[in-house]
Amino acid sequence: MTLNKYISFGAVAMITVAGLSSCDSKNDPAYIPAGSVSDSQRVFFLKNAYTQIVSAEENSFEFYVYRPDLNKLDENGDVTAQMPAQSVKINASCAEDGVLGSMISVPTDVNFEAGSPNAMIKVTYDPAKMTGNHYYPIVLTVDPEYANEYSITSTTLSINKEEYTDWAPFIVGEETEIRNGEGSFTFTQYYSGTEDPVRVLARSVPTNPNDIQFQFQWLIDYDDPNSWETFMTAYTKDGGKIVHVDPQAFAYNANYDEDVIVADTYTYTGNDQYKGLTNFDPETGLFTLNLYYYISLGSFGNGNEFLQLRGYKDTNVYELTVQPQGQMEVGGKDYEMVNFSFTEAVTYVDYTVVDGELEEEEVNAVIEKMTDPDQDTYTISRIEKSQNVAMTFPSSGEYTVVAVGYNEAIDGTVEAKCSAYASFSYTTFDPYANWSPVTNNALYVDTFLPTLAAMMGGELPETDMTVRVDKSDEYKGLYRITDPFAESEYVEALGLGRANFGCIEFAILGDGRVYFPKNSVGLLDGSDEIYLASASYYFMTEQGMEPDDLPDYFFGTLNEEGTQITMEPTGGNPSDFILWFGGEGPYLCDMYFYLDLAGGAGAPAHAPALKTGKVEKALAKMKLAGMPKVKAAAFPAFYKAVPQGAASVKLDRNVSKQLKSRR
Questions:
Q1: Are 608 and 581 in contact (CB under 8 A)?
Q2: How far apart are the first and last CA of the chain?
Q3: Of 463 and 422, the one with more pLDDT
Q4: Rounded CA gap, 48 and 652, in Å?
Q5: Reduced 3-state DSSP string for 33-51
Q6: In the beta sheet, which residues pair with residue 100?
Q7: 352 near 402, Cβ under 8 Å?
Q8: Whose CA is closest to 90, among 66, 113, 58?
Q9: CA–CA separation, 11 vs 25, rounded Å?
Q10: In 222-359, which ranges are continuous DSSP H helix?
Q11: For the chain, what percentages of helix, strand and coil (3-state, to nearest 5) are there?
Q12: Which end of the chain is less packed: N or C, by CB atoms within 10 Å?
């Protein structure tokens, strides 16, 4: 209507000018005001061009044309006069042969419902016939009979079946020999430690390169460079400013008999405080993943994990976090588990623990002292990979762990780059409660550590160790080797987190036979607890056997002098010892045990430790597949030990005296 008024005004202006130049207005043409088009409901498009992205999971979409809204309303907004229904024709064409009709169909008849200012065109397509990421331009034109000459009567509808590209190594910028999509993943939550190598595969949408999907993969067989397997997937819609990890199965937990699920914390909680904590930095090649691990009964916690790609700008991201995990019981005793996690640029971390809950200024003073190579104020421990560390303390109280991360440059220079600290409360225990010392100079030899080394793919010689032996004040005939691996130089090499006051208990029967209750002997890789027991104890407690129902090779023997205990390997299946670790087992563990309370010169000749190349093969070989056939027990199994004061013919009271005489 406004346009018509403008045109009418223009016509009057032209006539006026013509009149000024004419002497006789009788010959002027008659004035006819410009009105609306003959059909006031003629149709039009809103834009000259449209882009429609379609998916392979559907086969149609809706598109609209419009006509003037001529519904009449009263002062209350109610319709008093409604536009009639209307049918119009739309012409469609495509410069590319074979598109219209068989691949993409556009109806030529379009119907406006009464009162509606728009009409829907349902465009159908066959995704199987369309080429991915290819634009099909369809020109739509309103038939001239229905066209509004003052509006857009022709438009181009570009239809694209958008598809992700093929999976390929994720590389930002130019690919090089080092920048090849590989790097390292630092685990800090459900797992701990650094996995290297890992690689990242990615695929994106050509029309939106910021829409990227990721696969994080690790090698399942280090001897096979092609044995990549995906352990986590992720995606981003904005090029990495926010990375999403949808809930997915991450690992199977045998203790709970269900999958552990992982998701980024923001996706899992929907809490905006976690938004953007999971992201990717294209300059440094660093994925920072704030992850949440959980099962149906609860969570394993959340925190940052890092995937560092190699070959990016040498900005060296130095990230170090220290997180107390709380106290845990190991062998009936308490330890504080502290998690250290750091990025690949951190070569190693030095840490110390000090009394009290420190303020930031006090922490800075500790760090200044720690980084002085000549300092002797603090006891410094070093770790070279992210891991959990078990700590024990002589008394209850508040403690603060202070850590400093160092980077070693190519030229060998070392520089402190980052630091972190955390305080925690700790409640200790008395490791010597209810135990009395027998000797501090017993000679101890076994093949447990060499066997463990063989399982880990290496080989260690046996060592003679001087150990402390205590006797129980509560149970007769019960003894223990306290902290058995305290002097072993191979503990650190094996990743065996020796738990202070860990022990190997043994009980002596009246006839000199010796068996070993289930004992915690340490933490493998800082988190998986290792337990050890003699097969005799296993059968007596788990299957109700009496000691006399079991073959002698399931027991150790005490010599007549009461000074030496020896247990030889059986040489086959079944074995003399049983092993559990990481919640798995029991496994057969055929090993040698020798203890000389008088501190002899060395163990006699014995069978070697188990030798194997891989831990999986060792476990397959050691796995307890069947039990030996033994006579069923007539009475409940006797034992762990007998309380002091209880009568029992199964204990030789002279054995205690013999051991005590060696103190």
A1: no
A2: 115
A3: 422
A4: 103
A5: CCCCCCCCCCEEECCCEEE
A6: 104
A7: yes
A8: 66
A9: 16
A10: 265-269
A11: 15, 45, 45
A12: N
Tokens (6 digits) for 652: 């030789």
Instruction: Classify 325 as helix, strand or coil.
Output: strand
- Residues pairing with 93 in the sheet: 139
Count, in order, helices (H) and strands (E) of the chain: 8, 43
So what's the pLDDT on residue 90? 94
Residue 458 to residues 30, 451, 484, 490, 494: CA-CA distances in angstroms? 110, 9, 21, 11, 9
Query: How does 602-634 read in b/e, with b if 16+ C-beta sit within 10 Å?
Result: ebeebeebbebeeeeebbeebebeeeeeeeebe
pLDDT in tens, 238-282: 999 999 999 999 998 888 889 999 999 999 999 999 999 999 999
Supply the pLDDT for residue 590. 80
Residues 6+ positions from 6 with CB-CB distance below 8 Å: none
CA distances from 635 to 375, 549, 651 (A): 64, 11, 18
Cα separation, 89 vs 50, in Å, equals 19
Provide the residue type at 620 as one letter.
Answer: A
pLDDT band at 373 (very low <50, low <70, confident <90, very high): confident
**Pair of tokens at residue 558:** 């005490």
> 656 pLDDT exceeds 50?
no
pLDDT single digits (tens) 104-139: 999 999 999 999 999 999 999 999 999 888 899 999
329 or 379, which is more confident? 379
CA dihedral angle for residue 264, residue 266, residue 269, residue 270, rounded to 10 degrees: -140
pLDDT tens-digit map of 295-319:
988 888 889 999 999 888 766 778 9
CA distance linking residue 663 with residue 659, whole number of Å: 7
Asked whether residue 170 carries a pLDDT value surpassing 90, the answer given is yes
The type of residue at 275 is: K
Structure tokens at 563: 């000074």
- SS3 of 272, please? helix
* Torsion angle of the four alpha carbons 43, 46, 51, 57, in this order, in degrees rounded to the nearest 10: -60
Q: How confident is the model at residue 143 (pLDDT cuts 50, 70, 90)?
A: very high
d(CA 467, CA 333) in angstroms, rounded, equals 20
> At 415, is the pLDDT very low, low, confident or very high (cuts 50, 70, 90)?
confident
Enumerate the H helices of 318-455 as residue ranges. Answer: 360-370, 448-455
What is the C-alpha separation between 386 and 188, in angstroms, rounded? 7
| 114: its two tokens | 């009464």
Q: Pairing relation of β-strands 193-205 and 79-81?
A: unpaired
The pLDDT value given to residue 10: 35
Instruction: Report the C-alpha gap between 444 and 480 in whole angstroms.
Output: 12
How far CA 563 is from CA of 363, 443, 640, in Å, comes to: 51, 11, 22
Query: Which residue did the predictor score with more confidence, 257 or 633?
Result: 257
Sign of the CA dihedral with 643 first, then 647, 648, and 649 last: positive
Q: How many Cα atoms sit within 13 Å of 265 on the Cβ side?
A: 22
Q: What is the mean pLDDT of residues 58-64?
A: 93
Omega before residue 636 within 30° of 0, cis = no
The radius of gyration computed from the CA coordinates of the chain, to the nearest angstrom, equals: 40
- Provide the 3-class DSSP secondary structure of residue 543: coil
Distance separating alpha carbons of residues 413 and 417, to the nearest angstrom: 12
DSSP letter assigned to residue 487: T
Question: How many whole angstroms separate alpha carbon 514 and alpha carbon 533?
Answer: 12
- The mean of the pLDDT values for the chain is 79
Number of Cβ within 10 Å of residue 485's Cβ equals 24
